[in-house]
Amino acid sequence: MDLSSANLRHIAQQLYDAIVEAGRNALQVQISPRIFNAREALSVDTSQTYRELVTASVDEDVLRFMRHKVDSIAPLDGYWEEVGTSRRPGGHYWCIGKVDGAINFVRNMSEWTLTLSLFEINETGAAYPILGIVHAPALGMTYLAVRSEGAIRIRHTSSGDKRQRIIPTTTRTLAGSVVSFGMSYFAQEPRRAIDAVARMAGLPADIKRIGPASLDLCKVADGTYDAYFEPTLHHWDIPAVSAGSIIVWESGARLRRWDDSEINWYENNDIVASNGLITDELQKYLIQ
Fold first, then answer.
1. Who has greater pLDDT, 35 or 117?
2. Is the pLDDT of residue 199 over 90?
3. Pairing label, strands 227-233, 269-274
4. Annotated binding site, which residues?
5. What is the rounded CA–CA span in Å between residue 110 and residue 87?
6. Which residues participate in the annotated binding site for Mg(2+)?
7. What is the CATH number of domain 178-284?
């Protein structure tokens, strides 16, 4: 299949329409009485996770629906999570995400997303996202990027979609900046994020923790945040991070690992995204 910029844009538009429809269905679940009942159940039985109790069925519906759409529009070489080590140079693999921000979803917060990305494998076997969509149904907002075409934010309004090209901020120091961070709920892993926040406390104008990762990345891309960092992102975070990553890069912002190396999609990553102007200063507080 022709994956020129023009054709990628066409594919992205069709899949944008699909993910908006999937998001509409997921949002109906979030606002249903079932979510309140799930919160009550979790307060009694803490052995179950939010995803196990509530979003598992939503995830299944989203994955099934989006896979059907992808297969009918541009199946390419298959799916990232299925091909494993058989990903071949020159191959193109779709990565469909579950609900990113399961706790926010269950707690009736608006900050949760559905994500989709397309990986291209180069001649050395390295993987790079070349298309990404991050859709936030409850916010009425979608971010979209295609390789070499820039990144846009689409606001869904009663009078139609409003599209706007996005760029990062020009803030040059941590002083007065707005920084976001993320952390997992696994024992020990959050400590590194909390320690980094403690070291830089008092410098930024605000340090926020809202999530999820995909949306935090997009908020760096559109200038809402000056930077975002999170340690130990796992293989199950790849759909969210890969979709957000190309939006960051295409906006002109910067995304690397804490040690300033490239993101490696085959292992865990400590990531830091910024407008590109405060990365060096921020890294001093991440690496200790």
1. 117
2. yes
3. antiparallel
4. 100, 237
5. 35
6. 100, 237
7. 3.40.190.80
